[in-house]
Specification:
Strand order of the largest sheet: 3-4-5-8-9
Bound molecules: (2R)-2,3-dihydroxypropanoic acid
Distance between the termini: 19 Å
Number of strands: 11
Shape: globular
Radius of gyration: 20 Å
Largest sheet: 5 strands, antiparallel
Helix content: 40-55%
Strand content: 5-15%
Order of helices and strands: HEHHEHHHEEHHHHHEHHEEEEHHHEEH
Structural class: mainly alpha
Length: 418
């Protein structure tokens, strides 16, 4: 492996996908600013351009709604190559045309990482961002929290669009009246590697429901057609709150509210444990039933600061059975599909979060192994969006911002020891 050449290629991808103040996940397929992609992009930039790293997060928060929500897509400039665009979402609630749902809140964690590299010069920028991050997290605790678990109201909100976690909740939706529409994603990527039309009918139908209520949380809350408690969201927000707490403490501001959120979410994590499955799982809150899915999100416990021996044993088994773990859906699940987006492929960003958690939790060997296979995966198969966990077949295109970002910040040999 030529690590220096790969580092240079990764920096080149970030520069190429830079649209001036924000980074697109990849040209063509995703031509706007995506929320969690942007968090990773900022962390990647922080490895070689701190100014640009801060700017990425500041541009993301320029789209924050008055209610605190930071949307999952900001449509800064029109682009007919993407569907569903701003005309379909019809969300004019914020300062920038946007989608009407959010995405996993990785921003505070990466802001802390950027600030750690830029303590003096970055102080003022952190001071400006801190209340905005607090408002966003409060929005989650107010509008997306039940019994300490964070739920999603649309599969796109979890970032894991077509994970089997949502199958039962999606099957309960009748997308009647959704109308005709033309997908754009399948003209950029092989349809076999993307969500199906069955999924898309429901994705769009859910957008139409939110739009009909003006994306007003108070109007939507009493009767949500889709409401699933999600380990991605719950673990990531818990972790982000710990980072927010550290930054708030460092700036000498009041931390009581954030400490309360941490307590609440720790209880929520325990509720996501499905004893029969022996794993963290999602729960359809409309029926109270577990989804029965071991996914890569189940392994985010350590990232959230939650220890679990049984998950560690599971991870070891998964790592010895597959060339390139961690599969987004475990291969023993009947719906496993190694090529179709979140139904099996490995995502380098999830590996990174899992690996960070393992190192911090005192599992250096498991972290080292996961970093090694992720390093091999990218070195051998490129900066793709996702990869078949069995043979590494890449998908989604080879110039993905967040894969390049995690290479620079975590996977590359030049990062040194974990
Ligand atoms: C898409 O368009 O596939 C995105 O994942 C939605 O956020």
């Amino acid at each position: 492996m030529n690590a220096e050449a790969l580092d240079e290629e990764a920096r080149g991808i970030l520069r190429m996908n830079d649209r001036g103040g924000y980074t697109v996940p990849t040209d063509g397929l995703y031509p706007y600013q995506w929320n969690w992609d942007s968090g990773f992009a900022a962390w990647g930039f922080a490895q070689f351009d701190l100014e640009r790293a801060w700017k990425e997060v500041e541009t993301l928060f320029s789209g924050q709604w008055p209610n605190g929500m930071v949307p999952h897509i900001l449509f800064h400039k029109p682009d007919p190559g993407y569907f569903p665009g701003p005309d379909v979402w019809g969300a004019t609630n914020g300062p920038v045309p946007s989608s009407g749902v959010s995405q996993p809140p990785v921003a505070a964690t990466f802001v802390r990482a950027i600030w750690d590299k830029d303590r003096d010069a970055g102080q003022g920028r952190l001071q400006d961002l801190l209340p905005k991050m607090i408002d966003w997290h409060r929005w989650f605790m107010t509008w997306r929290q039940e019994a300490g678990m964070i739920f999603i109201t649309h599969p796109w909100e979890a970032g894991r669009d077509n994970a089997p976690d949502w199958d039962a909740a999606m099957a309960a939706i009748n997308p009647e009246g959704v109308g005709e529409y033309t997908r754009r994603d399948t003209s950029h990527v092989n349809p076999e590697m993307r969500p199906t039309k069955y999924d898309y009918d429901r994705y769009i139908w859910l957008v139409q429901q939110g739009r009909a209520k003006g994306w007003d949380e108070a109007r939507m809350a009493p009767d949500r057609p889709f409401k699933v408690a999600d380990p991605t969201m719950t673990f990531i927000l818990l972790r982000a709150n710990r980072d927010l707490l550290a930054m708030t403490e460092a700036l000498g501001a009041d931390t009581r509210e954030i400490k309360g959120w941490i307590d609440t979410l720790e209880q929520g994590c325990a509720a996501l444990w499905n004893e029969a499955l022996g794993s963290y799982d999602s729960i359809n809150l409309r029926t109270g039933t577990y989804s029965g899915c071991v996914t890569s999100a189940s392994y985010l416990c350590w990232y959230a600061g939650v220890e679990n021996d049984r998950m560690l044993a599971r991870l070891r088994a998964e790592t010895s059975n597959l060339r390139y773990p961690v599969p987004s859906t475990t291969p023993s699940h009947p719906e496993f599909n190694g090529k179709r987006y979140w139904r099996g492929p490995t995502w380098a960003i999830l590996n990174t979060l899992i690996g960070m958690g393992l190192s911090e939790a005192g599992h250096p060997e498991a972290a080292r192994l996961l970093r090694q296979t992720t390093q091999d995966l990218i070195a051998e198969h490129g900066f793709a969006e996702y990869f078949d966990p069995r043979d590494g077949t890449p998908a989604g295109g080879g110039t993905f911002t967040w894969t390049a970002a995690v290479w620079l910040a975590w996977a590359s040999p030049s990062v040194g020891d974990l």
